[in-house]
Amino acid sequence: MVEKRDRVKRTASSDAIGSSHLRNAETFHFKDDGVTPNHPHWPLIIYRSPVRLSAGLDPATIFEELFARNGWGGSWRNGIYDYVHYHSGIHEVLGIARGSGVVQLGGRQGRILTFEAGDVAILPAGTGHQRLEASNDFLVVGAYPPEGAYDECTSREDHARAVRSIQQAKKPATDPVYGANGPLIDLWVPEPQSA
């Protein structure tokens, strides 16, 4: 997929970024289907419209600055690939800057959800994702926590290595939307070590 760069003037204000308001977190756990491992312990987290996207401000810039302010960087602007893929060495946040899309999460056995501008999905390492359909103006901003290594896994051959790599992906210090006190901090609890 060729990256589509947003041509809208990049302006954001602290008012728009400061307008994030606490929303209930929707969570989903997905099982390993033999191709897409998903995360064995941590759920996918979805916030519906946690940021007010104001007319006159570039919505992608609002998400980029919000994620960066909360320690999630390496941001990009694009869509979501139309094939099942996941990242085994790093978590990912997706902010829907414009349009709407239907996305399958958790691999082929996962869940189909519709996302609208303003929504955010936080995918723990291993979470499969695939765009099924989208509006012509669909624009997503993605970002990553500071620790981890980006990879793109798509096949059964990736599975065994990915399962080991997912276990190495550390819990982020902050929630990409709400910072150090966000729901992610309580929802992604480290699994107790066996004796």
Note down, in words, how this protein is organized.
It is a single chain. The protein has 195 residues and is α+β, with helices and mostly antiparallel strands. It is 15% helix and 25% strand. It has a six-stranded antiparallel β-sheet with strand order 1-2-7-4-9-3, with helices on one face. Strands 6-5-8 form a three-stranded antiparallel β-sheet, with no helix packed on it. The N terminus is likely disordered.
**How large is the share of residues in beta strands?**
25-35%
Our count of helices gives 4
As a whole number of angstroms, the C-alpha radius of gyration is 16 Å
Give the overall shape, derived from the CA principal axes: globular
Task: Determine the fraction of residues in helical runs and give it as a percent range.
Answer: 10-25%
The number of E-state strands comes to 9
Query: What does the average pLDDT come to?
Result: 90
End-to-end separation in angstroms reads 46 Å
Q: Strand order, main sheet: write it out.
A: 1-2-7-4-9-3
Q: What is the string of helix and strand elements? A: HEEHEEEEEEEHH
By helix and strand content, what is the structural category? alpha+beta
Spans of at least 5 consecutive residues with low confidence: 1-11
Main sheet attributes: strand count, strand direction, barrel closure: 6 strands, antiparallel
Set down the secondary structure blueprint.
Blueprint: H1 14-17, E1 25-28, E2 44-47, H2 59-69, E3 73-78, E4 92-98, E5 100-105, E6 111-116, E7 120-123, E8 129-134, E9 139-144, H3 159-168, H4 183-187
Antiparallel strand pairs: 1-2, 2-7, 3-9, 4-7, 4-9, 5-6, 5-8
